[in-house]
Specification:
The protein has 95 residues and is mostly helical. The chain has one domain. The protein has 4 helices and no strands. Helix 3 packs antiparallel against helix 4. The radius of gyration is 15 Å and the shape is elongated. The relative contact order is 0.19. Keywords: Cell membrane, Membrane, Transmembrane, Transmembrane helix. This is DUF3817 domain-containing protein. Its main location: membrane. It is found in: Cell membrane.
Length: 95
């Protein structure tokens, strides 16, 4: 399950950055393309985000994460590049 969490963390981080790129660059240059991409990008990011949070809760006990570590892992999903940091610092040596 940890391997699935690692993959989800990376994919969630990528989807977050793609969603930001869509909002920042494509919206200003091509509004029609922005609206075409918004729903599939938003939906995929939302599913990955929810999966990341659920997997974090499921892995908390098996990975022996204390409350501080668990909080950092959850908050990282809200910050761009945060899930990449989590994957590198907390998950790299565990799979």
């Amino acid at each position: 399950m940890l391997r699935i969490f690692k993959v989800t963390a990376i994919l969630e981080g990528i989807s977050y950055l793609v969603l930001f790129a869509n909002m920042l660059f494509i919206k200003t240059n091509n509004p029609e393309l922005y609206h075409t991409l918004l729903q599939p990008l938003g939906m995929s990011h939302g599913i990955l985000f929810i999966g990341y949070i659920i997997l974090a809760f499921l892995l908390r006990k098996s990975q022996n994460w204390d409350l501080k570590t668990f909080g950092i892992i959850l908050v990282a999903s809200l910050i761009p590049f945060g899930t990449f940091y989590i994957e590198k610092k907390y998950l790299e040596n565990n799979a």
